[in-house]
Amino acid sequence: MGSDKPKEIQVGKKDRAQGSTTACPCCIATGDRRFRPWLLDNGIRRLLSPPAKLVKEFAKEGQVVADLGSGSGFYSIPLGKKVGSKGRVYAVDFDERAISRLKKKAAKANLGEVIAAHAGSAADLSFIPDASVDSVIANGLLCCMVDHAGALSEIKRILKPEGRVYLSVARIGRKKDPRYVGKAEWEEILSGFRVIWRRDGLATRRAKVAKREIPLPAELPAR
Ligand SMILES: C[S@@+](CC[C@H](N)C(=O)[O-])C[C@H]1O[C@@H](n2cnc3c(N)ncnc32)[C@H](O)[C@@H]1O
């Protein structure tokens, strides 16, 4: 798993640090990958891939949810609506522009008190207490950042014992790219959790996981 500090990468130009060209034409800069906000939150995406299904599966009223690599809030805003005023959504993205957009959207939707938007890396969530989060959503996060081990360790730290995590990574990418999560690494990541379901699609690998040491209710021995 990659653990180097993010390096400067110019999209479409030679990567000065690695002497190669970045795989994704929509990214902007830096070793950890940023996206233009309209790419992540637009009407077409909402139509083709409505956030409601994931939100329903991973959030309930009053719960605490962490949306890591939140972008400008494609999931955070509906998550905020779902958990409501008694709940909390930590939205974390290292892209300050995305976070500032998210804050504006949250205020407009009267979710300013519910959504705690934080500009920083998912590999340092020190502002979130241990074992305090019911669900973590990390949609497309790991394959956009270098420090996979750091983010995974933070996810495990903040998750409640019975908490759930949604992970998804893009399958498309350069194998040499330190952000890329290949099949072997994906299997290694999943082996650190208890897998509830997994789907290996053409473009993405996705899974719902829980802490490994906590048995799922269906697996508890019958009395
Ligand atoms: C593929 S986008 C997904 C955004 C959002 N989860 C969604 O589904 O719309 C990946 C996001 O991860 C963010 N990101 C990249 N490296 C990060 C890091 N080290 N910590 C937090 N966020 C990061 C990017 O800025 C981008 O918003």
List key phrases describing it.
seven-stranded mixed sheet; 7 strands; alpha/beta; Rossmann fold; 223 residues; binds S-adenosylmethionine
3D architecture notes:
With 223 residues, this protein is of the alpha/beta class. The chain has a single domain (50-215), classed as Rossmann fold (3-Layer(aba) Sandwich), CATH 3.40.50.150. Helix content is 26%, strand content 23%. The chain has seven helices and seven strands; from the N terminus they run H-H-H-E-H-E-H-E-E-H-E-H-E-E. The chain has helices spanning 37-40, 43-48, 52-58, 76-83, 96-108, 148-158, 183-191; strands at residues 64-68, 88-93, 115-119, 133-139, 159-170, 193-200, 204-211. A seven-stranded mixed beta sheet has the order 3-2-1-4-5-7-6. A hairpin with a 3-residue loop joins strand 6 (193-200) and strand 7 (204-211). It is globular. The chain starts with 36 loop residues before the first helix and ends in a 12-residue tail after the last strand. Mean pLDDT is 85; it is low at 1-30. Bound molecules: S-adenosylmethionine. S-adenosylmethionine binds next to strand 2.
